[in-house]
Design a protein that fits this description.
The chain has 123 residues and is mainly α. The protein is built from six helices and no strands. The chain folds into two domains: 59 residues, no CATH class; 54 residues, no CATH class. Helix 2 runs antiparallel to helix 3, helix 3 crosses helix 4 and helix 4 runs parallel beside helix 6.
């Protein structure tokens, strides 16, 4: 599991960590992250299955990949909460979390940030 958790971040090394408000399509994000992963992997002198693992994550082919996607959404939501934003403004991320443990943490964040400020990036 740990490989997917780390490898999915490789796409953000050069391509950035896009938010739902960055006005980029899923297809564009996927292409940019894939190019970034290939760039990172090109620097390695070893054979590995990292690209395959990343593609599995992207396609949510396994329970493990689905869990890591939940954790990634939760991390985004918690980061927004740490900045003092009301989690209710991040309903799109909240709606993508379906793992019961991640959902419980997300709902707790929603409750604890109630009444906080609205982010400037949200309509």
């Amino acid at each position: 599991m740990y490989k997917k958790g780390i490898i999915h971040e490789l796409g953000e090394v050069y391509a950035e960590d896009y938010t739902p408000y960055d006005n980029i399509t899923k297809e564009e994000k996927h292409i940019k992250e894939r190019e970034a992963i290939l760039k990172v992997l090109d620097t390695l002198d070893e054979n590995n299955d990292y690209l395959k693992i990343w593609e599995e994550y992207e396609k949510s082919e396994t329970e493990e990949a689905k869990f890591i996607k939940n954790v990634d959404q939760l991390e985004f939501l918690l980061q927004a909460c740490a900045y003092g934003y009301d989690a209710k403004y991040f309903e799109k991320s909240l709606s993508k979390i379906n793992n019961s443990y991640c959902k419980e943490i997300a709902l707790s964040a929603l409750h604890s940030t109630k009444g906080n400020k609205k982010p400037k990036i949200v309509g």
